[in-house]
Automatic annotation (TrEMBL):
Superkingdom of source: Bacteria
NCBIfam families found in the cross-reference section: PRK11700.1-6
Protein name per the record: VOC family protein
Species: Shewanella vaxholmensis
InterPro entries the record matches: DUF991_YecM-like (IPR010393), Glyas_Bleomycin-R_OHBP_Dase (IPR029068)
Pfam families: YecM
Database matches in SUPFAM superfamilies: Glyoxalase/Bleomycin resistance protein/Dihydroxybiphenyl dioxygenase (SSF54593)
């Protein structure tokens, strides 16, 4: 791995494959609850992958080896200056109604995560959006309830739920959810894939218009 990665993270192994397996049910329960809150649970969406967070290269290397025994690496790319692996599993993970074929394993940057392990899932919606504003409007069409969190056509930026009186709107369940809009892109990617992330506590759900395999295919163009 790159020397910049080596300098950025401590070299202790703090999360392993067995711990990930044991923690999956708790992660699944949190994600399913957040999906229900966001009104995304019954939309028949595709979950293209699940992502990890690790704080050390030793952990990332050990997980790379472990996942290579139960799948194959289909992408090894640099995104925002750090290595990110995509592993296609021999047997998909099951999360509620979803069958998740791929795992995203990012190598650490200079950010230290408060909790290592499973961190988010990524959903694909029917959208031709090339930027976050259009994606936001498409998501609002699918889930009007999210209008309390997402920007309208007149608003340039989303409003964090913590700044809203959601209880007065009958939407108290949305309180504490943070939103981030971004357009992460790998060095080789040619496909615009804007992303809207909804985070509550230690888990996150991201929504975008293109699945991970389509993004990987764009690297070959």
């Amino acid at each position: 791995m790159s020397s910049s990665n080596e300098a950025a993270a401590p070299q202790n192994t703090s999360i392993n494959y067995e711990q990930l397996t044991q923690s999956w049910p708790a992660f699944e329960a949190q994600i399913l609850a957040l999906l229900e809150t966001l009104d995304l649970a019954d939309k028949a969406l595709v979950c293209d992958h699940v992502a990890l967070r690790v704080n050390s290269i030793a952990s990332a290397d050990a997980l790379r080896d472990a996942f290579s025994c139960v799948g194959k690496i289909i992408s090894d790319n640099i995104i925002n200056g750090r290595t990110i692996l995509i592993i296609e599993l021999d047997t998909p993970l099951t999360l509620g109604q979803f069958s998740i074929a791929c795992v995203e394993l990012p190598y650490p940057s200079d950010k230290v995560y408060p909790q290592e392990g499973w961190e988010h899932i990524e959903l694909v919606i029917d959208s031709k959006a090339k930027e976050c504003d259009t994606l936001s409007q498409d998501l609002l069409t699918l889930c009007p309830k999210l209008s309390a969190l997402l920007p309208s056509e007149q608003a340039a930026e989303p409003v964090l739920s913590s700044s809203l009186d959601l209880s007065s709107q009958g939407l108290a369940s949305l309180a504490g959810i943070k939103i981030k809009m971004s357009s992460p892109k790998g060095d080789k990617e040619r496909l615009a894939n804007p992303t809207i992330a909804f985070k509550r506590d230690d888990v996150c759900i991201k929504v975008h218009p293109h699945g991970i395999k389509a993004v990987i295919a764009s690297e070959q163009m």
